[in-house]
Amino acid sequence: MPRCIVYDTDTDPATVLIVDDSEENIDILLNLLPTARALVSLDGPTALEILDRTLPDIILLDVIMPGMDGFELCRIIREDNRFDDIPILFITARNDEESIVRGFEIGGNDYVTRPFRPAELLARVRSQVRYKRALERLESIAVTDELTGIPNRRAFFTRGQILFDSTRRRGGGLSALMLDIDHFKQINDTYGHAVGDQTLRCLARQLGSRLDDGDLFGRLGGEEFAIIPSGRTGEQAVELAEAIRRDIEAAEVNVDAYRPRLTVSIGVAHTDEQTDSFDNLLCEADMNLYIAKQRGRNCVHHDGIPSDFKGTEFRPRIRRRG
């Protein structure tokens, strides 16, 4: 029996998980879905193992199976929030009203009875997959900064709070970097906002190339970015900030015919016994960024307010974001 085929819903093939104890039923579905990625399982436990490794675009699920039937498998899937967005389409010989209602009540998205009409089944599968992908696009837009393509303020704060809570439960520490482009207004005033926008994109790409996969990185607005390094001590976070500062100072930004020179100021903070919230961690990093600006820019500050600091009164800019 083929283990992987492809079912083409749009230009991007969908991944389909077929769960049925009948190889004959599976072969019918495989022949019906001619050009897409598909995974097959003859029982519920194997389907759950597949889901731990791969998130399909849709699950085609039989009801009548030995051991764990389709209703029980659907219930287990719906209890795991990793699979919330995966549509489940029941395909079964059970056509009584009670079974159909139960299928929807436990989390099924659609219910098709055998014998089914092939064209109708294909239409239902396509409809569910396209709806899922439309939701995914909307969700991506909601958490992505339109200009730079990196996580936006909302996504950064949501994911940052999760990291902060997880780190506290483990008893570990967490660092935060707040980064601001020095004299960015002069770039906009001298070269125009289009060049300023391209400069922000270039900076985002350069920052991303320096970071590890587990690091959280986002644009908070304007020319201000924030980074939550993963698995680094406070000293390592400061080293990362210095490396970023040196990289940007040395880089030649090529935007059309313009060569704006960039420097950045960075504030670094690390959790301690007084850090009781993610907002407080970012406020400390933001305070240190403010001090770096007052010290002349193009530097990293992480030691708190020095005793001889003569800047104006600091007013934290970080607030709880919705």
Describe the protein's architecture and organization.
- The chain is of the alpha/beta class and 322 residues long.
- It folds into 2 domains: 15-142, Rossmann fold (3-Layer(aba) Sandwich), CATH 3.40.50; 153-301, 2-Layer Sandwich (Alpha-Beta Plaits).
- It contains 10 helices and 10 strands.
- The chain has helices at residues 23-32, 44-53, 70-78, 97-105, 118-143, 153-170, 184-191, 193-210, 234-250, 278-294, and strands spanning 15-19, 37-41, 58-61, 88-92, 110-113, 175-181, 216-221, 224-228, 264-270, 300-301.
- The radius of gyration is 26 Å and the shape is elongated.
- Mean pLDDT is 87; it is low at 1-10 and 305-315.
- From the alpha carbons, calculate the radius of gyration and give it in angstroms: 26 Å
Helix and strand composition category: alpha/beta
Assembly type? single chain
Find the CATH topology of the largest domain: Alpha-Beta Plaits
Indicate the CATH class of the largest domain. Answer: Alpha Beta
Number of domain modules: 2
Give helix and strand order, one letter per element, not per position. EHEHEHEHEHHEHHEEHEHE
Give the overall silhouette. elongated
- Percent helix, as a range, is 40-55%
Say how many strands there are.
Answer: 10
| Number of helical stretches of at least 4 residues | 10
Examine the secondary-structure arrangement and name the CATH architecture of the largest domain: 2-Layer Sandwich
Mean pLDDT: 87
CATH homologous superfamily of the largest domain? Reverse transcriptase/Diguanylate cyclase domain
* Percentage of β-strand residues: 15-25%
Give the biggest beta sheet.
5 strands, parallel
